[in-house]
Fold each of these.
Amino acid sequence: MAEIEVRRLTKTFGRVAAVRDVSFTAPEGKVTGLLGPNGSGKTTTLRVLLGLVQASAGEALIGGVRYDRLARPRQMVGAMLESTGFHPGRRARDHLRVLADADGIAARRVDEVLDRTGLTAAARRPVRQFSLGMRQRLGLAAALLGDPRVLVLDEPANGLDPGGTAWLRATLRDLAREGRTIVVASHVLGEVTLTADHVVIVSAGELRFAGPLSEIGDTHGALESAFLTLTS
Amino acid sequence: MSSVIRSEFRKLTTVRAPWLLLAAGPLLVVAGITGLVSSGGNVHDPATQRAALAHTGLAAVFTLVFGILAVAGEYWHSTITDTYLSAPRRGRVIAAKLAVYALVGGCAGLLSSGAALATTAAWWAERGGQLQLSAAGTWLTLLGGVAANCAFAAIGVGLGALIRNPAAAVAVALAWFAVIEGITGQLLGSALARWLPFYASEALSRSNLQATARLLPQWGGGLMLLGYAAVFATAAVFTTLRRDVT
């Protein structure tokens, strides 16, 4: 049981309601695309889900449990957020070892995820030498480190070249097929139609649609027109 | 908890900056003692020997900055997100950082005390003085200096968690060190001033820079610094627990 459940979630920053009464479920074994314009509350929703931001009302659960109650969080949930940073002077492999140590993950896993994300050759270089795409791969490696049941990714295709994007798509499909729950927040609608089974559309902090992609139509054009109508 | 501590150690051992910072401590001590002797310090006076060894405590300015960067540095590089994803119970992160940074700060203080002893011995030999290792003050002065290095690393961890911008936190700490505490001390009068953190640290490390001040006994200064570290740490934990990381 590792589905994601967001229940009547509200988050206000001062007087601004970033998320208002949003509910949706991201089922196991599926890729759920979380869509919305800039400032629509996607990232805030993910941050509440990951225990980084406190909900004002409602809750967000992973397998029925709040993130901060997970005993080994990285072995249940792998996350990559846009704001995730790296120390510029730390080598890529050391970055992953720091994270592995914190969650009691074997060092062997570090080399496995470096291999899976194509970073083995760059593993001993400091992150300051990395391109945006390589940083993105390192973020993904960190998310995969604990072999988690759930993956939460914010704009994972950002900065990837076409080969990287295709690799990411195949990887996400594989991971979903293994029964994992995957949530991907994205702007790139074309990419979502190729990877997602479910979509959740938010706008101005409110839920506009949650359901199977097939209800909208799984072509880029259908998703785009639905997106523009729902978020206008 | 042990995994969070291990992770904190690895964070430190995989970057260079904190070690360069800590290396400045012994260098400051060597330079300070050399300055004391070359500006006419009398090597035959036991008070000069104590003043030389007390430079160990001055190195604590570097362990303070070292501690500040524990949390504030993670906000600066946005690595704090990954840190809290690994350990969502944030109190544990702060506790682990306090333990690791106090220990490493104490070790840096130990190196500084070694540098103080070696530099003093070298100058005393050069100038024909007799180093009084058995004098009551010698070891207590060195020990107090090491303790000050340890305490200021812990105070820095708390301060950096309260003021998460590293430049601002360092500026506040150094302004307090250089100016504000002196003025506050004058306003309060020496009876109250001796309870302030840097007066307490002077008592602990026996480095009477402000000779006019009436200081606490050495053990009292140590307890006061421990108290300050505890206050900052508690404030850090409470403000950190519920704060949104965006």
Amino acid sequence: MRWYGVERVTLGWCAAFVVLAVGLGGAVPFVPFPMFVFKLPERPTVIPLFKADGVPSSEEGFERFSGVAPSAVDLAHRGYECSAEHMMHELEEWLRWHQAAPGEPDGPVVVEVGLRILEIGPDGRVTTTERIDARGRAWPAAR
Amino acid sequence: MASGEVTELPANRWPRAWFAAGLFMAMISYNRISRMESVPYPRGLAAWVDLGWAAQPSALAGLALLFLVAMVAWVVRVRETAAAVVMIAVLWIAESLHLSQWADDVGGNKAAVLPVASLLAYTVTRAWSRRRGDDALTVERLAVEAACGVCAAAYFLAGVSKISESGLMWASGSNLALHITVHGWRGVEALIPFRLAVAEVLPLCTLFGVGTLIVECGYLFFVVPALRKPLSIAATLMHLSIGLVMGLHHYDWMFVEIGLAWYVVAAPTRAAAR
């Protein structure tokens, strides 16, 4: 079959991928469905919030945390949607592996952990509010 | 294969290198597993076999090196099938480790979907065509066509996924503005104010949404050789704008689609091949 130069083998693999993905709903490795969804949310959506001395920052710039346990990250985020769950887990994991040793002095930086809550307002624009769940201290990460 | 037989058109060396660059970016996308050192929640291949050894830093470095060697071998066509199998195996191990990181199943790493699936289609079809006794250029053409079929399906399904979960309202400016804000906070700090400013301009966000659906759903036409280059240009612009505005960098997919679109797959004559 040569419709506009289309080969049977092209159509065959294309159809096989679609059928496998949709039929098995992502059960086959590297053949996911759905993917890259970026769903239109029905409720407010959240992403993790990390601040250092009041400024939004990356947690990876800090270590030896005190007063901020990994459990401070609201992995369940009940009542909210989250289209980037991995961000929550990354923050939780970083805090888990970088707690201060017992007896170690508190770091100089005030850190805050919580949620950034995003909602589509009546005018269609995104409104952002912050919820701080825990406050503690940390040291700048050794480079 | 007879010695001296033409196995590749010179024009296809660069597209092949682009395709390999996509595979390389897919491997890079698994960089987070270098922090694991154990397999706390076995999923994927790790649910069936012990991959604890692979999570060790020295083993991960070894796997990365093995992948690089296989990638170079594949590009220069030395033990091509074995090289492809090695790359797919390493990426499958990486994917399994990625899935096994956290108690919650946050899903697979989509970055590797197109590179791995298209390489698999290429390799299987190449083996089938060789076994059938096709000449070398036909083998290559059919293998590339198979990969193009997977490429068309993968982008198409990404578009269909959006519509099936959210309807056509997925393309609304509000939805795009929300997702730009979600992801815009990550990555290069200097770009965050720019990204948040873009999210404020709803007509522009609507344009991004509509454009994305048109490109992804329209990618089904990638099966038509004559439409590959225009579709590739559209997809490349889409990937670059997503990288700039959202901070989501899928050069893994981008390099693969560029490589496939610029492959010369028309059945050439021997004279043309020289």
